[in-house]
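Changelog entry: the Gnk2-homologous domain-containing protein record was regenerated in this release. Current contents:
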Amino acid sequence: MNTLMKTRSKILFLFLILLNVVSISMSEPVFYDIFRCKTDSGTFQANSPYKTSLMSALNSLAGETDKHHGFASKFIGNKTDEVHAVALCPGYLKPKDCASCVNNTIPLLLKKCPNQKGAAAWRFKCMVRYTAPVVNNYDLWFVAHEVSDIKAKNVTMLEKALSMLEGDLLRVLYRNDPRAYAFNSLGYGDQRIYMVMQCTPDILSDNCMKCLLHISREKKPCCNGAIAAAMLTPNCYLRYAHADFRIL
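Regenerated structure tokens:
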């Protein structure tokens, strides 16, 4: 009898561990490495002035992020060969982690887009992009999605909570936070959802709102009911999950 009870206890213990692991993995946000080459931006030669300007701009980014709350923007070159390079880290990230992500991302982006004059990379802890300068620094040339395959048990409750969080964060950003960053969480049922919205601080407040509203509209058709998702663009992003991604 004692042996049988011990065996049952072990099985129950292992089951609870497995259940906890599954629960954690289901709640974690999704993170992919996303690279986009701007195909209509033109190309450059390896020994061209544009390449020289590009490397100078990119190499200066990581050191600048610590001075501007995880954001860096650099213009280098003459009119015909000018490059605008940008790095952005989530507002909750530590400066050293931001700089490390930017430095590690640059060679990967150059490898993915070796001669395009415009390119962007979104990774777990940072975004790096470069193009020729554009009007008001605003160019919504791509939207990428990261979506969990797991659906919420109660989609209606989740979508209502997400809508409330979006409204709260948009109001914060509308008040013109200089970092263009907002984070909050909300409990619904026995769950808690976490969300972040952020724009690159170099765009106009109106363009920040325009960008975020655009990806908010895209969220439902791409991600309805998903327990975690992100919409990523060159100028803004939105991410939500049932785990606090600030501490991952």
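The helical segments are 2-27, 49-65, 95-112, 155-174, 205-223.
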